[in-house]
Design a protein that fits this description.
Blueprint lengths: L3 H15 L9 E3 L8 E3 L1 H9 L3 H12 L5 E7 L3 E6 L1 H13 L13 E5 L11 H19 L3 E5 L7 H12 L22 H17 L1 H16 L2 H24 L17 H10 L3 E4 L2 E4 L13 E4 L7 H15 L4 E5 L5 H14 L7 E4 L4 E2 L16 H18 L8 H21 L7 E2 L2 H4 L7 H20 L12 H11 L1 H11 L3 H20 L7 H24 L9
Parallel strand pairs: 5-6, 5-10, 10-11, 12-13
Antiparallel strand pairs: 1-2, 2-4, 3-4, 7-8, 8-9
The protein binds one RNA strand of 77 nucleotides through helix 2, helix 6, helix 7, strand 9 and helix 12.
Length: 585
RNA sequence: GCGCCCGUAGCUCAACCGGAUAGAGCAUCCGCCUUCUAAGCGGACGGUUGCAGGUUCGAGUCCUGCCGGGCGCGCCA
């Protein structure tokens, strides 16, 4: 089973081959001129150039070879020699029925499944999730779902930041504040079982300590020393550190859950700490590790580099692991435990250089195959001023607050529209949450990940236009229709495409696989978002143009089947974006 | 200074190995609810794709230079 684009592409490719030309030139794409055709092939010009033949003659020969294929209603040569193809109604109807009966709604699978690790989210101990984590979480989640759905074996890993300098900062700041006396004792303890700090303490202390370290060298050096001591295993520090982790994670998981993000693995940087000595030994054995300014580094610059790439800092002058160290060790760990063919890092574009360094080091030491590590960067979510989003007070907006804000706005909008009045308070709250998540995620994922965008809550949560709530509305409208059909005992039947609106809808249903393939290849969920929107829009036109329940029985059954298939595909597309659809709104 | 990304309609954004008339949404204006959720649908208005060259039958897309914006450039992650 394949989509029309591929099926027709094969036919046209065969026609090219029969004319003595490469079959790849027969590639078919949706028409740029829907008024003239359904699909088009632009290969004749390229063929003419390569074979030094007249493009029109080639197109004629191809058209001739296609004659007799009943899937085409027509083929015409137009413009600067495009081959315009119109699909036969019978072939389109057949494809629509195929999609309606397919549990995968017309979506194919990858030819050769791979083992893929998606590293995303990037929460940190002691740092509450803020708007910067939003994109990492929702883009990574969507990529993970898309890869898994296309047939790969996929793991999502939160890659919990529990091992860096922020630990030393916290320990030092808390020690100075006299908060952690018992944990400062030398020796094996025992140490208090209760956390000496709350999350609110960490929220407040971390930014203060971080700022202080920038201004005060002595403080910074003490914090570095504390980091190294923690990593060396000082029992009191380890005990304290475990409290930090527990307190942090307790606040992170509900945030992730509320936006439909979950991880298969919640491995911390600390988990790979035991691998570091062996890794360093291997780097030494391969003569990759060199001493430099008191630190130990791996040089990854190449002669043909256009820029000065810094080395990978493996051991700091204080003897502690840096984030590059744990990133490299994590690759080693993953190779041993999961042996992925591909690791995808969904991390801010600003860290592109860092990942380039880590990736090169991993290739040098042989922890991954060339091409087996890929950083997919993304832009920032900006405020109205075009700069990374800040609160009115100039601080960083916490993710939990952002979600609460969006949910409140969604609830307000539902009330304005007089919707959800019949729902219980709990159902209404849950619907508002789904609408809020849809607003937030769709606004983000409908942009290409590489571009930054401006956060505009009013626009995102509008129920009109290209928004998450609009998509949910369309889905809910079909659900309502299907309930009514069920009440009236009307059943779906064989799809027969007749009306233009039905045609457009069927062609769009067919294009689902292309959208998924493109999102997959480019690691860019916006292609799925775009498909979902276009599908919702095509349905809405169909809904307005083609009455369903009051139509004559055969037409009614066909249209109902079309509506059902649309709903399923729309919900699937939304699910791949990480968006849940409510039953009513 | 070096490097990376971006510049498309008044605003927010798309655009499938380079292809026909560059598409949506918002905003503005005009229509459509005695049919299934009008949170909808139809239509109108809106463009020298930052500027200048180049390659090509053909450039928003590729190359060069310039202008404007964002970001990064070893001991924080």
């Amino acid at each position: 089973m394949s989509d029309l684009k591929s099926a027709l592409g094969e036919a046209v490719g065969a026609a090219f081959a029969s004319a003595g030309l490469p079959a790849e030139l027969g590639r078919v794409t949706p028409s740029d001129r829907p008024d003239l055709a359904d699909f088009q092939c632009n290969g004749a010009l390229a063929a003419a150039k390569a074979a030094k033949r007249n493009p029109r003659e080639i197109a004629q020969a191809v058209a001739e070879a296609l004659k007799g294929d009943s899937r085409f209603a027509s083929f015409e040569i137009a413009g600067p020699v495009f081959i315009n193809l119109k699909i036969a109604e019978g072939a389109l109807s057949a494809r629509a029925n195929e999609i309606a009966a397919d549990p995968r709604l017309g979506a194919g699978r990858v030819a050769a499944p791979r083992r893929v690790m998606v590293d995303y989210g990037g929460p940190n101990v002691a740092k509450p999730m803020h708007v910067g984590h939003l994109r990492a979480s929702i883009i990574g989640e969507s990529v993970k779902r898309t890869y898994r759905f296309r047939g790969d074996q996929v793991w999502g890993d939160a890659h919990f930041g529990d091992w860096g300098f922020q630990m030393g900062l916290l320990i030092t700041a808390l020690a100075d504040a006299g908060r952690i006396g018992p944990f400062l004792a030398e020796g094996d303890g025992p140490f208090p079982a209760d956390s000496p700090v709350t999350l609110a303490d960490l929220d407040r202390i971390y930014p203060e300590a971080s700022a202080k370290a920038k201004a005060d060298e002595t403080f910074r050096d003490r914090a570095r020393k504390a980091t190294a001591e923690l990593q060396a295993g000082r029992p009191g520090y380890r005990a304290l550190w475990k409290h930090f982790i527990a307190v942090s994670r307790a606040s992170l998981e509900p945030d992730f859950a509320s936006i439909g993000v979950s991880f298969d693995l919640w491995k911390g940087e600390s988990d790979v700490d035991p691998l570091i000595p062996g890794m360093i030994a291997e780097l030494e054995a391969k003569h990759l590790l060199v001493d430099d300014q008191g630190a130990r580094i791996v040089r990854v610059a190449r002669n043909d580099d256009k820029r000065d790439l810094p080395p990978l800092l493996v051991v700091s002058s204080e003897g502690s692991a840096m984030y590059g160290t744990t990133d490299l060790a994590t690759i080693l760990d993953r190779r041993r435990e999961y042996d992925p063919d591909l690791i995808i890092y969904a991390v801010d574009q600003r860290q592109a250089d860092h990942f380039e360094v880590v990736v090169r080091a991993a290739y040098l030491v042989g922890y991954a195959q060339e091409g087996g590590l890929e950083h997919i960067g993304f832009g920032t979510m900006n405020g109205p001023d075009g700069k990374p989003f800040k609160t009115r007070e100039g601080g960083v907006l916490k993710l939990g607050d952002l979600i609460a804000m969006t949910k409140a706005k969604a609830a307000e909008r539902l009330h304005e529209a007089g919707l959800g009045a019949e729902l219980s308070e709990a159902d209404f709250g849950e619907t508002a949450r789904k609408v809020a998540v849809a607003a937030l995620k769709f606004a983000d994922l409908s942009n290409h990940r590489s571009t930054s965008y401006i956060f505009d809550l009013d626009r995102f949560s509008s129920f009109e236009g290209k928004t998450g709530p609009y998509l949910l509305y369309q889905a809910v409208r079909v659900k309502s229709l299907l309930r009514k059909a069920a009440d009236e005992g009307v059943e779906a039947g064989k799809i027969v495409i007749v009306e233009p609106a039905e045609r457009d809808l069927a062609l769009l249903l067919d294009s689902f696989d292309s959208a998924l393939a493109e999102a997959y290849d480019k690691k860019a969920p916006n292609f799925i978002a775009d498909h979902a929107y276009r599908l919702a829009q095509a349905f809405s036109k169909f809904y307005a143009a083609c009455p369903i329940l009051i139509a004559q029985p055969p037409v009614r059954a066909s249209r109902l089947a079309l509506a059902e298939a649309t709903l399923k595909q729309l919900e699937l597309a939304l699910d791949l974006l990480g968006i849940e659809t409510p039953e009513r709104m």
